[in-house]
Amino acid sequence: xxxxxxxxxxxxxxxxxxxxxxxxxxxxxxxxxxxxxxxxxxxxxxxxxxxxxxxxxxxxxxxxxxxxxxxxxxxxxxxxxxxxxxxxxxxxxxxxxxxxxxxxxxxxxxxxxxxxxxxxxxxxxxxxxxxxxxxxxxxxxxxxxxxxxxxxxxxxxxxxxxxxxxxxxxxxxxxxxxxxxxxxxxxxxxxxxxxxxxxxxxxxxx
Length: 206
Hints:
By secondary structure, the chain is mostly helical. It contains 12 helices and no strands. The radius of gyration is 19 Å and the shape is globular.
């Protein structure tokens, strides 16, 4: 694929579906082709950001779930480390909900609230349900209750009711703003949850 080739939406979809099959050289060509779709000034800014990121220390990762590993990370670093740890064990599973249920409950609570928060903040509740994250919808409210995000749990149950009545085109826009304000509290609630419920991450950890 020539770097200067412009990509259509169909091209992007096909590429996304086969990224895991690409070699490093093929991924480099795809990267250049994607850049070619951007204005020159944006291309240069993107390249500068990539170069800057390459000089940063690697983001901390969880290779095991232990008390010292959890205590060594804080804030966004902990959120991302838990997300990546769980995603490696859940994404691609024949039954992601079952795969998630086999992990310690603390990981489940943090992962579910983080995924919901990211989707809602990025594209609203519709995006959560439109993306693969939607398959976890029945697990969200119980996780939010354990996170002590009671109002968010109650509101999400209302959302589920709306979706069940009109799954094709649920009208969630009017709820997005109010729910996003509650989701803004999730990071602080996760930090408190990890501090108070460390045992919930260690039981059944592997």
